[in-house]
From TrEMBL:
Alphabetized Gene3D superfamilies for the sequence: P-loop containing nucleotide triphosphate hydrolases
Localization annotation: Cell membrane
Family: Belongs to the ABC transporter superfamily. Drug exporter-1 (DrugE1) (TC 3.A.1.105) family.
Domain of life the protein comes from: Bacteria
Annotated Pfam families: ABC_tran, DrrA1-3_C
Name the UniProt record assigns to this protein: Daunorubicin resistance protein DrrA family ABC transporter ATP-binding protein
InterPro entries tied to this protein: AAA+_ATPase (IPR003593), ABC_transporter-like_ATP-bd (IPR003439), ABC_transporter-like_CS (IPR017871), ABC_transporter_ATP-binding (IPR050763), DrrA (IPR005894), DrrA1/2-like_C (IPR025302), P-loop_NTPase (IPR027417)
Topology within the bilayer: Peripheral membrane protein
Residue ranges occupied by any ABC transporter domain in the UniProt entry: 5-235
GO MF annotation terms: ATP binding
Keyword line: Antibiotic resistance, ATP-binding, Cell membrane, Membrane, Nucleotide-binding, Translocase, Transport
């Protein structure tokens, strides 16, 4: 397979802030790659470089085989971009917004109108097609913005935190739309700070922190880096904590963790279900009453914490907010 995106050693500085610190990135044709990281990690800056909105201070990048510095117009002709905020004209209807995008891409009047009708239906906006978009909900605006990004059927679609600010229902609806685009063969580069979003949508995840790619792989590969599954237990009686610790220590790899209440315990294990079964037998044999017990796989939250030493939460650093996000 060919690379739809290939970036090497990208550097971008904003005065004293280095938003990108030698970022390397590859996106294979037909794949979905998620750039995962909190605000301030460098995700949006990377998108702005790849879409020719920013010039890097160092490094190289090609998009759909076109150099972003040598031929920025050629890059823009080959991509669709949906940013963090829906770029729609509030005074035009949904249909008029899409027709306008088609005309801007020189599709011609007839083709622009046909494409607008096709996408209005595809994105579930038929009932609102002739309403001004200022009357649309946030989720409807995001769907319209995404439709606008694919009017010209670009080989590469770049979505920069497409579900930011949406409620859970709207986010799930937009995920369904994105899956349909991917199933139809669209190559997708997605930035997100939602770990679940990357887990559900991406073939490969690139974890970014402080402007660098610090890990990459499938969701399962990244989760494996945290050291396997965990048995989690909640005891009925905290006075049995020491006995419960001994039970878990017999199957654990490493130390048994105990929460502040003394009733919640957790231990990493190598043999998953077999270790859980052994622990259950030992708890019963020792007469230790358990309110809850289960086997939990690592989440991408665990991965990010393991890789970076901090949680994947939005940055509150005013020096980088809105600049290097």
């Amino acid at each position: 397979m060919t690379d739809m995106v290939r970036a090497t050693g990208l550097v971008k500085r904003y005065k004293t802030v280095e938003a990108l610190s030698g970022l390397d990135l590859q996106v294979e044709e037909g794949s979905v790659v998620a750039l995962l990281g909190p605000n301030g990690a460098g995700k949006t800056t990377a998108v702005r470089v790849l879409t020719t909105l920013l010039v890097p201070d160092a490094g190289t990048a090609q998009v759909a085989g076109v150099d972003v510095l040598a031929d920025p117009a050629g890059v823009r002709a080959r991509i669709g971009l949906s940013g963090q905020y829906a770029a729609v004209d509030e005074h035009l209807t949904g249909y008029e917004n899409l027709e306008m995008v088609g005309r801007l891409y020189d599709l011609g009047r007839a083709r622009s109108r046909a494409r607008a009708r096709e996408l209005i239906e595809r994105f579930g906006l038929t009932d609102a097609a002739d309403r001004p978009t200022k009357t649309y909900s946030g989720g409807m605006r995001r769907r319209l913005d995404l439709a606008g990004a694919i009017v010209a059927a670009p080989p590469l679609l770049i979505l920069d935190e497409p579900t930011t600010g949406l409620d859970v229902r709207s986010r799930l609806q937009l995920w369904d739309v994105i899956r349909e685009l991917v199933a139809a063969g669209t190559t997708l580069l997605l930035t997100t700070q939602y770990l679940e979003e990357a887990d559900r949508l991406a073939d490969e995840i690139v974890v970014i922190d402080h402007g660098k790619a610090i890990a990459r792989g499938t969701a399962d590969q990244l989760k494996a880096q945290t050291g396997g599954e965990r048995i989690e237990v909640i005891l009925a009686d905290s006075t049995r904590r020491e006995s419960a610790e001994r039970v878990l220590a017999a199957v654990a790899r490493g130390d048994v963790q105990v929460d502040e209440s003394g009733r919640g315990l957790a231990a990493r294990v190598d043999e998953g279900a077999r270790s859980l079964q052994q622990a259950l037998r030992e708890f019963e044999y020792a007469g230790i009453e358990v309110l809850e017990i289960g086997l939990r796989r690592p989440t991408l939250d665990d991965v990010f914490l393991e890789l970076t030493g901090h949680a994947a939460e939005p940055s509150t650093d005013a020096s980088t907010e809105g600049v290097a996000s």
